[in-house]
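Chain X:
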Amino acid sequence: MLTSEKNLSPFDVNMAYDAGWNVVAPYTNIHATDIQSLVQDAIFSRGPTGVKRTGIFLGGRDMQQSLEMLTLCKDSMVPPFEVSVFADPSGAFTTAAGMVAKVEQALKNIDNLTLQDKTIIVLGGTGPVGSTAAMIAAKEGAKVIIMGRQKEKCQATVELCNTLINDSAKNISAEKNDNLDSIIDKVDVVFAAAAAGIQLLTESQMKKAAKLIVAADVNAVPPSGIFGLDVMSDMAPLGEAPSKTVGIGALAIGNVKYQTQHTLLKQMKETEKPVYYHYEDAFEAAQAYVHKKS
């Protein structure tokens, strides 16, 4: 397990053990220049058959860095010496996948709707969870607005996201939090991905949300990022909005996140051919889990 941070996430360590991996070896403060030597030391220490018993997990806190490291890992393989790699920085890829999959499920349950052409705002959208959710939703055809305190930081995140998904349609745009009042009445879906304990969608704003269909929040620490949304909510009515809005709380999303990460870690262990997982694969796994439970 490789991370650019000084510590490896205990959450990810526990997830690996729970998925059946016997040994977890942490490597911290890793830079891109370290990747090739670490990967090749790992793959050449076992034969082409034994190498299947090794996998690489990429943590850290930076979405772009993790994707770049994933590419570096893949480029460092020397067939038939290859191992599987899974990037999930700060759990952002699997958390975002769980949130979007749950919202997609809610839309389908409400008059068989989809993400296509829906207007989505991402509160706290400059962080790894928010920006990943923005990319997933944009790839599904939604019009996504990343929101934050600083317009310049939001715009930089938008440019990165559009570049990473190669989006010629530019379905992701930026707005400051200060402009939320002026656009909330045009929004179909809210993703709340701000830091724990920060409420970004207030009671008065909820009352203006005339078109709001689904509101989802990944924050489990009070207060909720969305006024009136309980952490246990799983498509329960959200009373303050004038429309028939349903809410999806952090624990409902967290369950899908957990199952998604568990599934991908287990698949890495069991696969006969190397796999390279990131946010798109996480979303597919989250969709499959949600569909199975529907």
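Chain Y:
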Amino acid sequence: MFEAFEIGPFLIWTHLVFLLIGIVLSTEFFLRLAQRAALSLQHLEEHPLQYLFVFLISGRALAIITEYRVYLKDPWRILIVWDGGFSFLGGAIGLAVLLYVVTRLQRSTFLQWLDVLVPPTTLGLTFDWLGKLFSGQAYGRPTDVAWGVTYDAMHVRYAVPIHLVQLYYAIFFLLLTFLLLVIRKHARRVGTETLVGICLMAVVTFLLEYFRGDFGIPVFAMKIDFVVLIALFVSLTVFALIELKLTERAVIVTELLLAAVFGGYLMARPWLPFPTFELRFSQLLSVLALFATVVYVIVHRRRYPHL
């Protein structure tokens, strides 16, 4: 374990070093892909500090949320921004939100930018998870496999060999980066990289999270919840596809009907007599990301058949 090392009077966090390497490489990767896709970088060139601020704030915010137990015990640690507590995925999500706002004023669509953003994100996540491996963050469950490792650290609650779940993630994201480059070379429609990338990330994240042994935010779900989620996203897809053909009154009625049905389910859910099972919050988010991506790409391709 190499959580930190000293250079003179300075204490350097290993995770932070890998994060910086990932940020530099993924930024260069992102700019090159954007140029090859003939996307305008004017807004980024005119407001670079805005992008940097959003990336840092959203990355720090997600790291604080996922490790909320640590920061609740020591709230002042929130101000220690050099402690390695940063989520590259959170930063990428923040950039995606900003790009969504920016593209509403441009000729390019948000999905075109997502296709450019996803491969650099997977590359950056590779280094993020390597940093977590050396710093002992997001560690795995106990295991008997030959490649299990034992961490000698106070914040790791197991004194026995555990899964190298961080390495599993790093290898997956590195392979996914190369796969997305191949897909990008042969893709004929906008959204292919986004669809493949986010869907694979969602599925693999859902599976690999079962190997995690660190504390996480628990979510108690029922099987019927996933049925309702599927029904919700299918309904939203159909509604988005036929929205332009509906009158204003029909749109309002449809929206109210959807809100009443699924809102009523949320209110009645605590009293449903179905067994629950525990998930990590990241697993729930991966399911939502999967459904949302499929719906968005389908709707986008229907609205922009020429892209």
